Amino acid sequence: MLQLFNKFLVIIMAALLGACTNPFTTREGQVEKPGTFLPGQNGVYDPAVTPELVFVNLKKALSDNNVAEYMKCFIPQSLQGQPHSFLFIPEQHFANEFTRQPWTLNDEQNYFIQLVQSQKGDYPKIELNLGDGGEISLNPITPTSVNDSLETGSIKYNLKIAFSLDSSKTYSGLLQFRLFRSTTPPEVWYIYYWQDNALNKNYDQTWTNLKLYYRKKAL
């Protein structure tokens, strides 16, 4: 009799366990799908293994006031030399200012440090728009350089800087970049040439003038 009761109890327990849902499994239809990933989201800066990612990182570094990531967009000192060295060609209206003292990578870093260190609270807030938000075309500099050296055409830019809630300024003009891909893994792309030009002779609105302002301010 006891043996029969034990068998009956085992059958009941097995049935109950089979009907229960495992709390450690995910129910069908409740699996969370990962969000669509976009380069540069959520504080992530992806190595610029394509030239397009250079522009993504450049805009994000400006928006984040991130000096280190901003400088990673440009050819580093360790790679300076022929055939690639950092060169900034200013708007020609200010050419004399730069002839006496050519613009260097250190100048590039110093002006941006001064810009972002002038912040109060959450400012400055910087937003860069390139090419009216459209795709930026890239062309080989020479017929054989399609995989390692590219240049843009003239790109219209708008650089909006809000210094406070009630103070902002927009710099605009035309720029041209040249980029190259390093041969050192992970073989990332860098900007090594930057030319700036005014739109409709609005020289004071150019990026050149912004850089020049912070150079003079540091003296």
Protein architecture, described:
It contains six helices and seven strands. It is of the alpha+beta class. Strands 1, 2, 3, 4, 5, 6 and 7 form a seven-stranded mixed sheet that branches. 31% of the residues lie in helices and 23% in strands. The protein has a single domain (50-218), classed as Roll (Nuclear Transport Factor 2, Chain: A), CATH 3.10.450. The N and C termini lie far apart (102 Å).
Outline the fold blueprint.
Blueprint lengths: L1 H18 L31 H14 L2 H5 L15 E3 L5 H6 L4 H13 L7 E6 L7 E3 L8 E4 L2 E10 L2 E15 L7 E9 L9 H12 L1
Parallel strand pairs: 1-7
Antiparallel strand pairs: 2-5, 3-4, 4-6, 5-6, 6-7
The total of beta strands comes to 7
Number of helices: 6
Q: Hey, roughly how much beta strand do the residues contain?
A: 15-25%
Helix proportion range? 25-40%
Q: How many separate domains make up the residues?
A: 1
Biggest β-sheet strands, sense, barrel:
7 strands, mixed
The CATH topology, please? Nuclear Transport Factor 2, Chain: A
